[in-house]
Amino acid sequence: MARCVDGAADELRKIDSVVPLRCDVTKPDEEMLRIFDVNVFGSHRMTNAFLPLLVESKGRIVNIGLQGGMLSKKYYGPYTMTKHAIEAYTETLRLELEPYGVLARVIQPGGVTTNISAASHAGTVARFQRAQPPFREEADAILGYVTAPPPERATSGDAAAEAEESDTNRRPSSPEIVAVAVCDALFSPTPKLHDLVGTRWEGYRVLDALVTKLLDEDDNPKHNYSRDELIALLDRQIAERAKT
Predict the structure, then answer these.
(1) Do 193 and 216 have their domain in common?
(2) How many other C-beta atoms lie within 10 A of the C-beta of residue 79?
(3) Which residues, 6+ apart, have CB-to-CB distance to 118 below 8 Å?
(4) What is the CATH number of the domain that holds 65?
């Protein structure tokens, strides 16, 4: 297990993915196709290539999603679209392949210390630079932020270091926590379908977004469950999970 974690963590530090941060209205079709080709169809091709061996060995499929697969954030539209797709794809794989002994799981990291920002920086700048009116002013403000020198890392005792984590005071996690989740997904006798990985603040942000979606779905005259009914539904789910 230790070798698995160390190897996975080393690869995560070197990660270079396709993250087109931009005003979504500036996207050309070829960029959308590329990010889906890498982040979604790449997983699909890899799974299909190994499917006979997976079924034969009753193996595991571990997809790397994102907390953004359950919520969306301004300027990250195309990226989170692909991670929403990975969520749906993994859930479908689990339903279709579990009867054949193959389990699927999606890891959902939050902020992680990798090379991904540096690797995508030039593309990010180029995308915001091509924004046209009425989005030009907003794009210029973002360019000022992404091209500014990085702030000095806070150290123990600094106000930023001591302040609670927030959207403007992020505390990226070490790649090791993702590596541990991947190894658990591969070797745990009872792997769960979803694995949220990150800080407590990130977890609260995801749960808060999911509750908002739940209430949106419930705000319908056809079902509109009461508070007591919703709590009963949550209690039933917790009781079911305690049995596993």
Answers:
(1) no
(2) 23
(3) none
(4) 3.40.50.720
